[in-house]
From TrEMBL:
This is FAD-dependent oxidoreductase. It holds the Pfam family Pyr_redox_dim. Gene3D superfamilies: 3.30.390.30, FAD/NAD(P)-binding domain. Keywords: FAD, Flavoprotein, Oxidation, Oxidoreductase, Redox-active center. InterPro entries: FAD-bd_OxRdtase, FAD/NAD-bd_sf, FAD/NAD-binding_dom, FAD/NAD-linked_Rdtase_dimer_sf, Pyr_nucl-diS_OxRdtase_dimer. Residues 1-304 form the FAD/NAD(P)-binding domain. Its cofactor is FAD. Residues 330-427 form the Pyridine nucleotide-disulphide oxidoreductase dimerisation domain. Belongs to the class-III pyridine nucleotide-disulfide oxidoreductase family.
């Protein structure tokens, strides 16, 4: 079996490794236009903030290690033509310009995503930085020690983390977003307020509900003009979001309107023998029961493994995702899974939600910390569709617990009665996950 894998970030790496594990005899060619693989881009803000022990450790594989595993790596090589129906690829070495072509039995599309970069006046200035890949990370790492101020555009996870790390390292930061609150697509309004207060406390200027219209270079830096004002700093950083990098395959496979490639539960596209995974592909989103586009490394890894298990025949079906995620800003840990009540309304799911706040362990302990917890459920069925937790205590695994509950279609009543241990070092007699579920059940019964 001869397999081509196009792209070598998380989905591509795990696809290739799993195919080799399942089929040691397989000939696997991986095409990657960059010179690195498996970069953990979620660590960019941490690296800029000097919280990374070694940048080399931000990669869990290398081209050399994959070659040693029997996978043929074509680095600095771009696939320029793809005839998916006939499994025919044309590719070019970006250094020499030399082109070649090959035919395959199977093709795996793991081309990932591309940063959203609107065609605004001045956006291609050398003082406007991207925050997507290894090259972007290097560019930012070189410049940030020298700057005194920065404008971060986009208040999702990436922008929020960049703004936080720059501010705690003594930079004057302005955070701009087109929506009316920070992390608006990740949190409910009451959680956003906690983070907004923390930003203000650390001197970050919040420019929310504003759309960027242009960029202008100044004698000392960059000016960002919005529909409501202008802001100046030494540099600007884009963290607006991502779109699937799938233009090469347009009109050959079924896609969502944004270009995300549709697959079945075995990661196969509408073209037999062609698979897709990671940021290039859709996910089955369990809270809504529909396919969606949710670019997360966790989704990419699992889908890549599934490609390897199903490359020859349907073996293991995709269990779907809850898009569980987390972020830490100013020592505030936030972890969430599934839908917020605001996101549910956008996606047409009729929900209710409840929020509680209580200490994570008994007050007789010498120290304890409060936890803010919310649970969201579908009206009528009481099926859990989302949860969020916020604290200076590590509450990250609570989101994983509720993620399992969502995947297994548990109700708020079932979660309220689920057995969780009690030991005062770790928690209350009623764990805060149980407590928020009980509050939800009580509200639903009214």
């Amino acid at each position: 079996m001869k397999v081509a894998v196009i792209g070598a970030t998380h989905a591509g790496v795990f696809s290739a490794k799993q195919i080799k594990a399942e089929h040691p005899e397989a000939e696997i060619d991986v095409f990657e236009k960059n010179q690195t693989v498996s970069f953990l881009s979620c660590g960019i803000a941490l690296w800029i903030g000097d919280h990374v022990s070694s940048p080399e450790k931000m990669f869990y594989e290398s081209p050399e290690s994959l070659n040693a595993q029997g996978i043929t790596m074509h680095m600095g090589t771009e696939v320029t033509e793809a005839d998916l129906a006939n499994k025919h690829l044309v590719y070019k070495d970006l250094d020499s310009g030399k082109e070649a072509a090959a035919d395959y039995d199977k093709i795996v599309i793991t081309t990932g995503s591309k940063a959203i970069k609107p065609n605004l006046p001045g956006i291609y200035s050398d003082r406007v930085f991207d925050s997507k890949n290894w090259d972007n990370a290097n560019d930012l790492k070189k410049v940030t020690p020298e700057i005194k101020s920065a404008i971060v555009i986009g208040a999702g996870y990436i922008g929020a983390e960049l703004a936080e790390q720059l501010s705690v390292n003594g930079k004057q930061v302005t955070l701009i977003d087109g929506l009316d609150r920070v992390l608006a697509k990740n949190t409910s309004a009451d959680f956003s307020q906690v983070f907004e207060d923390a930003y203000v406390e650390h001197g970050v200027e919040l420019a929310l509900n504003q759309m960027v219209e242009s960029f202008e270079e100044t004698e000392t830096g960059i000016k960002v003009n919005t529909d409501k004002g202008s802001y100046e700093a030494d540099i600007a950083i884009l963290g607006i979001g991502f779109l699937p990098n799938t233009g090469l395959f347009k009109d050959q496979v079924k896609m969502l309107q944004n270009g995300a490639i549709e697959t079945n539960e075995y990661m196969e596209t509408s073209v037999p023998g062609v698979f897709a995974a990671g940021d290039a592909a859709t996910v089955f989103y369990n809270p809504t029961g529909k396919y969606d586009y949710i670019p997360l490394a966790t989704n990419a890894v699992r889908q890549g493994v599934l490609v390897g298990k199903n490359i020859e025949k349907n073996t293991v079906a995709y269990q779907g995702t809850q898009a569980t995620s987390a972020v830490e800003l100013y020592d505030l840990a936030y972890a969430a899974t599934g839908l917020t009540v605001e996101a549910a309304a956008v996606k047409g799911v009729d929900t209710e939600t409840v929020t509680i706040k209580e200490d994570y362990r008994p007050d007789f302990m010498l120290s304890t910390t409060s936890v803010q917890a919310s649970l969201t459920w579908e009206k009528g069925t009481k099926r859990i569709v989302g949860a969020a937790f916020l604290s200076k205590h590590d509450i990250s695994q609570a989101a994983n617990v509720v993620s399992l509950a969502i995947e297994n279609k548990m109700t708020i009543d079932q979660l309220a009665m689920t057995d969780f241990f009690f030991q005062p070092n770790f928690g209350q007699p009623i764990n805060y996950v149980s407590s928020v579920a009980m509050a939800a059940a009580a509200k639903a019964a009214q």
